[in-house]
Amino acid sequence: MLISDLCKRIIPCLDVANGRTVKGVKFQSLRDIGDPVEQAVIYQEQGADELMFLDILASAEGKQTTVKLVAKIANELSIPFTVGGGISTLADACRLLENGADKISVNTAAVLRPELITEIANTFGSQCCVIAIDARSIGPNQWEVLTHGGRKSAGIDAFAWAKQAVELGAGEVLLTSWDKDGTLSGFDLLLTRHFSTLLSVPVIASGGARGPQCFLDVFDKGAADAALAATIFHDGTWTVRSLKKEIEIKGVPIRAC
Question: How confident is the model over 42-94, as pLDDT tens digits?
């Protein structure tokens, strides 16, 4: 297994809508999972390396991310906390960082106005700016960008957009496979590897996590720096701690719980 010596990160994701954690399949058929503050605490106690908070309806409905909820979660955390959804201006990013976010994830607004990436990176540093890309397969080694919570096609090539975003200042890529999201069928290894091996910044794989072997595969064959999951943690199929133990047994460098 040819995996780098750098520790791989396991990142639970809180997809939030109207103040509640939700989860669907391919961004549709959302079901209520629970209170995001309570879940954030649980995942941190289980050994999560970071936590991702995505307000999945904010961009689609033209709303801003709920700052008060972000502040409540941040107040309970000591691990890195990334927030995304509905962030369309530098002021939005600043407000969330002032309320406890460590990193800002931008998607739809950055596609519509790429300068937003540079504004965030120049003001807070590239390490603070995560470009989130929801990619849908349109052919062999070809993916298109989806925006507005996976509801609209942007009509642009996903890898070309990722490369541009990095050039504009993004310090990390959150790469979600629309085709795999919520399916429990494993990460899209071809998609992840294509981005991970050709981009100069860390790539977080997202979409399709099922269990330890999926993570082992995406760290090895997919060359991902980190992997994000939601369903398996929300449903209690795996805890972060139990997942990490299985991955560590296989010799993958990972932070201890």
Answer: 999 999 999 999 987 655 544 556 899 999 999 999 999 999 998 999 999 99
Of 55, 92, 134, 217, the catalytic one is 134
> Per the residue annotation, which of 15, 49, 181, 225 is the catalytic one?
15
Amino acid identity of residue 82, one-letter, is: T
CATH number of 9-249: 3.20.20.70
> Would you say 221 and 173 are in contact if contact means Cβ atoms under 8 Å apart?
no
pLDDT tens, 174-220?
Answer: 999 999 998 999 999 999 999 999 999 999 999 999 999 999 999 99
**Would you call 251 exposed, middle or buried from its count of C-beta atoms within 10 A (0-12, 13-18, 19+)?**
exposed
The 3-state DSSP class for residue 221 equals coil
Q: Which amino acid is at 30?
A: L
For the question of residue 179 being annotated catalytic, the response is no
- Break the chain into its structural domains and give their ranges: 9-249
Q: What pTM value is reported for the model?
A: 0.93
Catalytic residue flag (residue 102): no
- Strands 20-25 and 9-17 turn out to be antiparallel
